[in-house]
Amino acid sequence: MYAYTSSKSLFERAQQSIPGGVNSPVRAFKSVGGTPVFVAKAKGAYLYDEDGQKYIDYIASWGPMILGHAYQPVISAIQKKAEDSTSFGAPTLLEIEMAELIKSMAPNVDLIRMVNSGTEACMSAIRLARGYTGRNKFIKFEGCYHGHADMFLVKAGSGLATFNIQTVPGVTAGNAQDTLTAPYNDLAAVAQLVAEHKDEVAAIIIEPVAGNMGCILPQEGFIEGLRALCTREGILLIFDEVMTGFRMAPGGAQEVLGVDADLVCYGKVIGAGMPVGAFGGKKAIMEHIAPLGNVYQAGTLSGNPLAMAAGIALLKELQARPETYKELEEKTLYLRDGLNKVLSASGLDYVINQKGSMISVHFSAHPVTDFATAAAADTAFFNRFFHEMLQRGIYLPPSAFESWFLNNALSYADLDETIAAAQSSLAAILGK
Ligand code: HOZ
């Protein structure tokens, strides 16, 4: 039996000085109940908590640890660079190397601006789209999460879906009025919104494979349809690749889906887990950003040398070993097949959605293709499953509204252990 003695006392202590004891709501375990696990360290595919217990990690810091935790080339790069100071607030060679590396891997990126998080990347991309098109409104999809900037906190997934927060106090009506929402995978609804707001829509922003309502895949023709609609109506198509960027493929979802975005947003992956983000795209659009243009955007820590050094080390490894992506996908398919076996034997209704190294399980009798179908699944059962898995040393996201992420440090023995844990977890819940 796993005990969470240290985590429990740390959680109590944390609540005295941190709102809810956490710095990002989904970590509070509120929706699954119980005590959040306080992590002491991680190496490869494993996390170790403050009680010294080991877990196989399926969060991977919400995506970026593609090659596993404390990956030696990343650690060495950070250690070496730290000797030169931690921040300059001045241009560096590393920023150029990072921009060139991203351009060599990702399609449709002529110019790229570094920021400090995925939130900053997405809010800056929307500002740029508005400045470029001279239009105010944008369309996002129900259940997609693009960070916590005011205009995105409308029908968002992730923590808002987890806690069923419908409207956010502090987000003014003025802020929300230009945010239009449509169901994921519903091209007709998007076309209708665009027709109703003719020449008013600056951008459509989307997670090309959604990860903030569990993993949800774009149906055939959906993303292509958005592309065609945007081109026809002079709307910018923005891919939020904070989760999919450099994870689905070197060129992210753009490469895998074969659809070009006008602007692309990246996040933690390009810092190998350090706080960083970026947005980029075609020169004709990006040159509207200050100091080339008047769309202002700035940040003292943007392009931070430690984040750049870490990210360059990770991206170079991914570029040098493209077979990583095949290996990751094979491992994810192995996990999917194993879970399929134990779930179908259990007699439960379930859906497994998977793309590349993103996967999640919804306890549902119906296909899960958008937020409504994700929300209709049995989240209470997921919560019990989550705790049984945790007790068996498997660290899943503490919400049915988050994707699981595989890392390439996972061995097939780890995957077998996970599948066996799923089998005994289900047996424990169902009393079989
Ligand atoms: N909303 C984030 C994942 N989609 C949670 C990240 C975190 O807690 O760090």
Characterization of the model:
This protein folds into two domains: 5-70 and 322-430, Alpha-Beta Complex (Aspartate Aminotransferase, domain 1), CATH 3.90.1150.10; 72-320, Aspartate Aminotransferase, domain 2 (3-Layer(aba) Sandwich), CATH 3.40.640.10. It has 15 helices and 14 strands. It has helices at 5-15, 72-82, 93-105, 118-133, 158-162, 173-176, 187-196, 222-233, 252-257, 283-286, 305-320, 323-346, 371-375, 379-391, 412-430, and strands spanning 39-43, 46-49, 54-57, 111-115, 137-141, 179-182, 201-206, 236-240, 263-266, 277-281, 351-355, 358-362, 394-395, 404-405. The strands form three sheets. Strands 4-10-9-8-7-5-6 form a seven-stranded mixed sheet, with helices on both faces. The chain has a four-stranded mixed sheet with strand order 1-2-3-13. The protein has a three-stranded antiparallel sheet with strand order 11-12-14, covered by helices on one side. The protein is globular and about 60 Å long. The protein starts with a helix and ends with a helix.
Number of domains: 2
Secondary structure category = alpha/beta
pLDDT averaged residue by residue = 96
Percent of residues in helical segments? Answer: 25-40%
Instruction: Briefly note the CATH topology name of the largest domain.
Output: Aspartate Aminotransferase, domain 2
How does the SSE layout of this entry go?
Blueprint: H1 5-15, E1 39-43, E2 46-49, E3 54-57, H2 72-82, H3 93-105, E4 111-115, H4 118-133, E5 137-141, H5 158-162, H6 173-176, E6 179-182, H7 187-196, E7 201-206, H8 222-233, E8 236-240, H9 252-257, E9 263-266, E10 277-281, H10 283-286, H11 305-320, H12 323-346, E11 351-355, E12 358-362, H13 371-375, H14 379-391, E13 394-395, E14 404-405, H15 412-430
Parallel strand pairs: 3-13, 5-6, 5-7, 7-8, 8-9
Antiparallel strand pairs: 1-2, 2-3, 4-10, 9-10, 11-12, 12-14
Bound molecules: (4S)-4,5-diaminopentanoic acid.
Residues 24, 26-27, 62, 145, 158-159, 212, 402 line the site of (4S)-4,5-diaminopentanoic acid (HOZ).
